[in-house]
Amino acid sequence: MDNFNDELLAFLQASPTPFHAVRTMAERLQAGGFERLNEGDAWQLRAGGRYYVTRNDSSIIAFIHGRDDPTNAGLRMAGAHTDSPCLKVKPNPEIQSQGYWQLGVEVYGGALLNPWFDRDLGLAGRVTTLDKRGRISSELLDFGRPIAVIPSLAIHLDRDANNGRTVNPQTHLPPVLMRAEGDAPALSFKALLAQELRKTVGKADKAAENPAGTVLDYDLFFYDTQAPALVGLHREFIAAARLDNLLSCYVGLQALLGAGDAVSSLLVCNDHEEVGSVSACGAQGPMLKSFLERLVPAAEARNRMLERSLMISVDNAHGVHPNFKDRHDSQHGPLLNDGPVIKVNANQRYATSGETSGLFRHLCQQVDVAVQSFVVRTDLACGSTIGPITAAEIGVRTLDVGVPTFAMHSIRELAGSRDAQALCRVLGHFYAVPQLPW
């Protein structure tokens, strides 16, 4: 348990953005014997082979080609997403106001905004550059230290702050990076990025050829630099940023790394779930469908394979909050550290059916893992996942599960320290099931 959670915390710390998460997953897959595929190359997949492919540097599919014909045995699939709500830097971000240098940001996804105030913020993402030879390339960048803060307004200047504080994302969220010196011209953000690239990745020949001024563009996100931690009187909780949904990515990755090669197993981790999944690398895009078409080119054989398959969409569930228990259905309040949660919604915001839920319960029983259920209050709106989207895109039986958490979409979330490993045991068993019951 301790080793599993230590590795989970290390994964979270190494993955401040979807780009970094995919790079970290790719490194672990390569160490586990997986071969990288390029979507632009011809593929020669062999039975027993282990492969992975990325798109946009922010989505990844890892696959074990089972020795049993997948047309007859089907696929064991799990899915998660790599992105989390955060603040993204705008294209022309420089703001100089009242003697301070700030950056304009957009809100990415449905973020809880109040927790972003008074945090030590780092900056990370992907930077696209032009080198001296006229070549365009991209580098991952992480300042790796606190470089900004969004200060709260003192209560003396806002006496009603505790009675109903609202946040204007345009005017209240630009982080403060530094004092502007006198009448000096505003600092160029792209020049700052070029300088940081030289410092952090300058040892690589390609990066060293990028002098200041050659940054073309970027996808950069602020993040909380506070390290993930085990907290609670008995270390029973995990406190970290991006638990939704990097925890699920890690669980799926560990389960797949430990899987055998008798049956075909797959993990897909898509970007852009928090903003609707409509992109080339999102769950509503063609990435997984294209992969399956290359795996089994014949449409009839592929349809037969999918009929014998199952997708488990893994995304965190809402644990019942002891201070806000009225926000839950009284019969469906998952507890942290009481096991993974089956997520159900009559309006297909989750893809679970009685059939797929029954199978998951059986899998949990076989590995002695407790299981819970979540249904949103009937008078509240329900969020969604990649589950229904993936089911609609490729026509596969699907269910939605996840570990219970508090503070979902906050800058720092909370999960149970026993639930992730429990879910990993279930997924590992799922990847080994020789025949699904349909």
From TrEMBL:
Coiled coil: none annotated. GO terms for cellular component: cytoplasm. Its EC number is 3.4.11.-. CDD domains: M18_DAP. It is an enzyme of class 3 (hydrolase). Keywords: Aminopeptidase, Hydrolase, Metal-binding, Metalloprotease, Protease, Zinc. The keyword Hydrolase applies. Its cofactor is Zn(2+). InterPro entries: Peptidase_M18 (IPR001948), Peptidase_M18_dom2 (IPR023358). One of its GO terms (molecular function) is aminopeptidase activity. GO terms for biological process: proteolysis. Belongs to the peptidase M18 family. This is M18 family aminopeptidase. It comes from Exilibacterium tricleocarpae.
